[in-house]
Amino acid sequence: MRNKGGPRLLVTDREGALYLERSRIRVEGNRIVYYITNDEYRKEYNIPHVNLAVLFLGQGTSITQDAIRLLGEEGVHLAVTGTGGSPLHMGSLTTYTATNHFREMLPIYQSTNRSLAAAKALMRDRGNCMMKIGNAKVKRFLRVRDVSRLEQICKKLITRIEAVQSIQELLGVEGQFSKTCYAEFARLSGISKQGEFRRLTGASNDDIDMTDHVKQVNQLIDHGNYLCYGMAGAALWALGIPPHMSIFHGKTRAGGLVFDLADGFKDAFVLPLAFASIMSTKDKTPEKTFRARMIDAFDDSRILRQAIDTVNHIISAGGKVESVVDA
């Protein structure tokens, strides 16, 4: 039965995400079902589309037009992703999304001063998220009790933010924070004993100067970031905010606001789990384990609600300063 009244559940009231790979997705009656392509018995599994926020489509997955239509009617955000690939996000056109968040974001996007204030609020959330959620995951997955150095890194970030006078300066502070976090997680996981950890996007088998552990962590960070971009994209779509209205990482970069928003929480989720992946020599499918842990963490932390809270923090901070429009 066609849902003509728009999505039945708010995005913040739903389960976070479902990841499928090598699956075929179609409609069976009023249900959306999938089966694994190598399953000779073709056993079908339900997709709880009424109670789902994001559906990640991994490698080797196909989906029918009818299934996409039903997902769109319920406001499910599709994110196509895979190892080493660029994420592709899709949301249905809808007349049910309110415009108040878009109207509040527009003057922030247009103003240098307001964008800076909003970016500072984002970075504060980033530091606080690492102290709260990241520290807890370090203790659980890296089996470390003393997280005082990581707390000091986050507190230093929040202190430095207050003195920043420009976006360019804030980008420098962010870069130093990221570099310090990588070094600390390399120390906590023991990978630093193999040499200095080097962050490299798109790490592949061609990077012969990297150890297997460093390569694995880099690949999982890439994959985890894509999952975070999917969640950030879903939050922006639910609020009716165009993803290109960047406040921080480039006004002309496609989907810039998705990357901005994901930065508010991705370190706290991705880094502990990616670096923890090297601690088990028995795990033959580290990417699958990592992905399952990420999606469970999204649900446990109600990440969509957290992302929407960050959007509200951005809007509140950006709306409190005097506007200066770029020439």
Folded structure, characterized:
The chain has 327 residues and is of the alpha/beta class. It has 10 helices and 8 strands. The strands form 2 sheets. Strands 1-5-7-8 form a 4-stranded mixed sheet. The protein has a 4-stranded mixed sheet with strand order 4-3-2-6, with helices on one face. A hairpin with a 2-residue loop joins strand 2 (23-28) and strand 3. Helix 3 packs parallel to helix 5 and helix 6 (212-239) crosses helix 7. The radius of gyration is 20 Å and the shape is globular. The protein starts with 14 loop residues before the first strand and ends in a 9-residue tail after the last helix.
Strand content: 5-15%
Q: Which series of helices and strands comes N to C? A: EEEEEEHEEHHHHHHHHH
Q: Any low-confidence stretches, pLDDT <50, length ≥5?
A: none
Q: Return Rg in Å.
A: 20 Å
Tertiary shape: globular
Largest sheet: 4 strands, mixed
Strand order of the largest sheet: 1-5-7-8
Number of helices: 10
Terminal CA distance reads 51 Å
Summed over residues and divided by their number, the pLDDT gives a mean of 85
Helix content: 40-55%
Number of strands: 8
Question: Structural class, judged by helices and strands?
Answer: alpha/beta
Layout of strands and helices, then pairs:
Blueprint: E1 15-20, E2 23-28, E3 31-36, E4 45-47, E5 52-57, E6 62-63, H1 65-73, E7 77-80, E8 88-90, H2 100-110, H3 112-141, H4 148-163, H5 167-189, H6 212-239, H7 256-263, H8 266-276, H9 286-300, H10 303-318
Parallel strand pairs: 1-5, 2-6, 5-7
Antiparallel strand pairs: 2-3, 3-4, 7-8
Helix pairs in contact: 2-3, 3-4, 3-5, 3-8, 3-10, 4-5, 5-8, 6-7, 6-8, 6-9, 6-10, 8-9
